[in-house]
């Protein structure tokens, strides 16, 4: 098993740049700015996409088909995307992915402007964006290791989590205004422009800590590269603990939270304004807790911090299970879920700090497949199970399982080793 307490920093990471303020580092700032703008555009696109699908098909179920066409090719190709991002510069993968995604969005905008937009064109575009995402995701998740010193991973991840959630809040607001003024054409054009900005920013991003400073590695076959990433993940106990925690969190807590929250709000006799406020509370708490983690002067007990945040998410769904009897519990539950979602900051920091640089994108791709592959099934089953046993039972059971898992995992020797890791 990997001894996380003695894992060395990847070659090239230790640098005088580690003493600089993070946002004073030009190349990190360019990457962060470009990707944040892109996430803003994506947030707007998701709203316009849902509205356009319903206008074109007249069916709410059509959106499920489109989402499946988007996520399935991404899951199927994630491992290949991770292997590719470990073979060639991650900067090149991200630049290519942003460029292709921008061209897809531009084509959608032009088609919408000409009046020839159809549901199946949106579906094909969603599938192509899913394929693009399979290559983008592992490279993006690993990019901090190429840009900043190891001691700054935590702060960098906190910035990305906070700004990503701010984009998640403001993007849909912009979409509502733009759609009212210019229809789907305006929103699709906005997203195309956001990808163009991200690509241009990437052109001016030169990783100071990238693999250019390392000794060349022998070129492997794709099959061997995939096997190496899977083997490293399988033999590293603390990564398996993170995978198990992420899987339970996504399937037993986040899927029920996403699917059942609107129905739960209606059951408490509240309206759509309350649902909007709950979303705002959740996002605000993700941002605040992520920034708080990034500002810690001397972070320690990484293993316990990871599990404590996941347990907060479980406590959030447990709290929501009692919400039908107490309206205020809706907001307490959403706040706890938001705090728990900053789990990603600690998870990403540990992976970027402790996984060898030449394996990081592959380990991330395995993590993504393991964490997200069962989500479509979890979404589908949540409604069915809730109808049979009730929403409180689904939320309460999922939250209880996650809290118990976190408490049990805290006693594992590998978690205690993580506590000694510098993050």
Set down the secondary structure blueprint:
Blueprint: H1 26-57, H2 61-85, H3 90-114, H4 119-142, H5 144-147, H6 153-203, H7 222-235, H8 237-267, H9 272-295, H10 302-321, H11 328-340, H12 343-354, H13 360-372, H14 375-389, H15 391-409, H16 413-418
Helix pairs in contact: 1-6, 2-4, 2-7, 2-13, 3-4, 3-6, 4-13, 6-9, 6-12, 7-13, 8-10, 8-13, 8-14, 8-15, 9-11, 10-11, 10-12, 10-15, 14-15
Explain what the structure shows.
By secondary structure, the chain is mainly α. It has 2 domains: 20-210, Growth Hormone, Chain: A; 222-418, Growth Hormone, Chain: A. The chain is 78% helix and 0% strand. It contains 16 helices and no strands. It has helices spanning 26-57, 61-85, 90-114, 119-142, 144-147, 153-203, 222-235, 237-267, 272-295, 302-321, 328-340, 343-354, 360-372, 375-389, 391-409, 413-418. Helix 4 (119-142) crosses helix 13 (360-372) and helix 14 crosses helix 15. The longest helix has 51 residues, at 153-203. The chain is globular and about 60 Å long. The two termini are 19 Å apart. Residues 1-19 and 211-216 have low confidence and may be disordered.
């Amino acid at each position: 098993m990997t001894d996380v307490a003695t894992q060395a920093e990847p070659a090239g990471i230790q640098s005088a740049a580690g003493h600089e303020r993070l946002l004073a580092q030009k190349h990190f700032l360019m990457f962060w700015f470009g990707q944040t703008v892109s996430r803003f555009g994506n947030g707007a696109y998701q709203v316009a996409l849902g509205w356009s699908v319903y206008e074109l098909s007249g069916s709410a179920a059509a959106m499920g088909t489109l989402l499946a066409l988007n996520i399935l090719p991404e899951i199927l190709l994630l491992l290949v995307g991770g292997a590719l991002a470990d073979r060639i510069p991650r900067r090149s993968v991200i630049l290519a992915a942003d460029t292709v995604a921008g061209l897809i969005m531009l084509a959608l905008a032009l088609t919408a402007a000409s009046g020839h937009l159809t549901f199946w064109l949106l579906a094909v575009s969603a599938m192509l964006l899913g394929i693009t995402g399979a290559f983008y995701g592992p490279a993006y998740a690993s990019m901090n290791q190429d840009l900043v010193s190891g001691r700054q991973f935590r702060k960098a991840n906190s910035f990305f989590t906070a700004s990503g959630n701010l984009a998640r809040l403001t993007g849909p607001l912009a979409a509502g205004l733009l759609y009212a003024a210019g229809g789907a054409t305006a929103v699709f054009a906005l997203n195309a422009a956001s990808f163009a900005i991200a690509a241009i920013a990437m052109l001016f991003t030169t990783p100071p800590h990238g693999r250019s400073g390392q000794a060349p590695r022998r070129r492997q076959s794709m099959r061997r590269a995939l096997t190496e990433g899977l083997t490293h993940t399988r033999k590293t106990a603390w990564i398996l603990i993170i995978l198990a925690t992420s899987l339970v969190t996504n399937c037993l807590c986040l899927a029920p939270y996403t699917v059942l929250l609107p129905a739960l709000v209606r059951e408490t006799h509240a309206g759509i304004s309350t649902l909007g406020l709950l979303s705002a509370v959740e996002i605000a708490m993700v941002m605040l807790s992520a920034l708080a983690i990034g500002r810690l002067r001397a972070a320690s007990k990484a293993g316990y911090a990871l599990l404590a945040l996941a347990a907060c998410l479980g406590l959030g769904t447990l709290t929501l299970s009692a919400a039908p009897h107490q309206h205020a519990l809706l907001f307490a539950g959403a706040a706890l879920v938001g705090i728990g979602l900053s789990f990603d900051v600690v998870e990403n920091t540990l992976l970027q700090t402790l996984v060898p640089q030449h394996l990081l994108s592959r380990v991330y791709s395995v993590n993504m497949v393991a964490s997200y592959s069962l989500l479509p099934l979890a979404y589908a089953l949540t409604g069915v199970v809730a109808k049979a046993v009730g929403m409180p039972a689904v939320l309460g059971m999922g939250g209880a399982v996650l809290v118990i898992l976190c408490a049990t995992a805290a006693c594992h020797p590998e978690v205690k080793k993580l506590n000694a890791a510098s993050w």
